[in-house]
Amino acid sequence: MPEKKKKIYIFDTTLRDGEQSPGASLTPEEKVKIARQLERLNVDVIEAGFPVSSPGEMRAVQMISGAVSGPVICGLARTVPKDMDACRKALETAKRKRLHIFLATSQIHREFKLHKKKAEILKLAVESIRSARKDFKDIEFSPEDAARTERDFLTEVVTRAVEAGATVVNIPDTVGYAIPGEFGDLVALLIKKVPVLGKKVTLSVHCHNDLGLATANSLAAVLAGANQVECTINGIGERAGNASMEEIVMAIDTRQDFMGCATQIKTEEITKTSRLVSHLTGMVVQPNKAIVGRNAFSHESGIHQDGVLKERQTYEIMDPARVGLSGSQIILGKLSGRHAFSERVKKLGYRLSEPDLDRAFERFKKIADQKKYVFDEDIETLIQDEISEIPETWKLDYLKISLETGKPPAATVRLRRNDQVSEAVSQGDGPVDACYKAIEKITQVKATLTHYAIQSVTSGKDALGEVSVKLMLEGREVTGRGASTDIIEASVKAYLFALNKVCAKLFGPGIEPSTV
Ligand code: KIV
Ligand code: ZN
User: Fold this and answer.
1) Fewer CB near the terminus (10 Å): N or C of the chain?
2) Where do the structural domains in the chain lie, given as residue ranges?
3) How far apart are CA 445 and CA 290, in angstroms?
4) Ligand 1 neighbours by CB, cut-off 6 Å
5) CATH class in words for 395-515
């Protein structure tokens, strides 16, 4: 009988710490979409947000609590009653819930941020855990900046947190300062001093990537006895990000011989989850990113290609299929019918309603007319692009670009709003700028473009281009994206997507119809 491997719990914080990435703001509806995908990925815990921080955040955690039933749903709180009350309210309908309380313990945080002595920190930690026990059975406690906290004080805080009733103790390397051997030693020390850790009380780690060591530190902690890892999809998060889930999971999976443990992640869902998070946050994944980067499984050098063709494992340590890269040999094109399209959509793991499938098929046919082969990546992009829950207040009706040597480009843009059609012509520094100025003339909404990125979904001259933009609108940064074989059209779609989000008031009070 195969020996049973120790289980490592995967705590996903893409929707809380990940969303703290500059500019990665998500609407509550987008958060639910990601949470549902995290459920399919089979994570153990979803940290859905910090409910006290805004009404939108509260709504997102409430919606996720109602929509997702597999993983534990977790809400973050400081050691203050209003934060814990907000979590109680936000998690009311969750089938399984956890409260995550954090309090900084390092000297620098105590002195400069909290202005509190060690004794006060201990008291706050203990009292907040005790009072949370009235409403929560599952309580996680995080001594923030643990990696820079004096070892004896950290041990004392952890001991008292466990005595007070914490069911999970999380050790954050909040500023990504630790080095793997050192972090592993810290985990080993805590287990030695508080032996229930990693057994009756879950011992978690939460590593940031400021020195590029978040994955290495997390794995060192697992080897030393931690049994929960906190991480985000694509490693998104504050500054240089958090430990990347796909890297940790695939390291444990690929090096089972050395790690001697396992997660319950359905690794075949990794690629789809990564693409969804990148698509919705507008945060492009670097091509050479381990596991989910576009180049992670491609071989350029002739010697490598030759080796892989002879025996895949010469240069590939993971089978691409293990992370959900379909590698399908049958590529769809303009002769493919609705049945073939719907079968491929199912194979890619999407369950669409009939009207959504009709819309996606209609878009597929248009794309198939413009490009010879429609790859799986194209289909995924068009599904995510088309099947959006954002109402299309403004819809692109017509677009023309005029280019004349020596003159600035001019754009003619026609937008539809309900039954009304409006047109404007504008010049700009480039064709995209001209389009955005024309949109501004029509909508009368002033937005500042803070970020613009374009990437091709597949290779080839006729590839779909996917544009992501960030706009400052009404004092908040809003992301938008759009895809088309024509990059100017993709740029316009991305802009309108962001604008429509604000019109739909998905972030709370939005642009009133009278001002648009
Ligand atoms: O990095 C950190 O310390 C955190 C805590 C809230 C766990 O995100
Ligand atoms: Zn963090």
Assistant:
1) N
2) 6-281, 301-386, 395-515
3) 40
4) 17, 102, 142, 144, 170, 172, 174, 206, 208
5) alpha beta
